[in-house]
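note to self: dont lose this again. the chain is below, predicted strucutre after it. 250 aa total, dont forget to put it in the shared folder this time
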Amino acid sequence: MMIEETKRKLHSLRLLGMAQNFEGQLRSAATKDLAFEDRVGLMVDEEMTFRDNKRLKRLLHTAKLRENACIEDIKYLPGRGLNKAHIASLAKVEWVRQGVNLIITGPTGGGKTWMACAFGNQTCRYGLSVLFCRLPLLLEDLAIAHGDGTYRKRLAQLAKVDLLILDDLGITPLNPTGRGDLLEVLEQRCALRSTVITSQFPVSEWHGYLSGGNPTVADAILDRLVSGSERIEIGGESMRLQRKISKVSS
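---
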């Protein structure tokens, strides 16, 4: 009776990890020889693991990452120009905690989006919030938000995310509203939260794309985005082509 009551109370308190371990200990003869404090320690460890896994699942769900990518699967092929030491340093996500931006550039199919999602996945593992957005679609959403009165609320939501991934800068033309909205998003996050930007164009070409006859806005965007940022420049052949070749050969 006492055992069933204890299990009921653990579930009632939402200590589901402890409840699972408690039941496991009841079935295991090995744990009966452990000291009381060791058995309690096992239950606490199980609860911590359960909560960490639950949080990670929630963070990955809300991140909406486009690719199922992780740091361990990065391919350091000749010609890609990836520095293992640099990647390993970034994998600790201290730059996210410090509000530093990351710029990933490279040719079409080079794996920029995949790389950004890998860092998004890694950031979630450290218990930080992430949101993936294709920049053209985000700017369309913000343009609509101007009209339905949700613009400020949307900006506030974007400002709270620990790591915001903006994919495909430069893929579509920017209108004046889009430039202004991009500036506002970056202004809300500047030096407070980290932003990842991917682009097939080198940073040296961004000013011309962002200006559209208004160099002041371009200067403001670049100052908030590029200053003090970490950078990854991906080279080599298309990873999409590499994957197709690999599938055919296998």
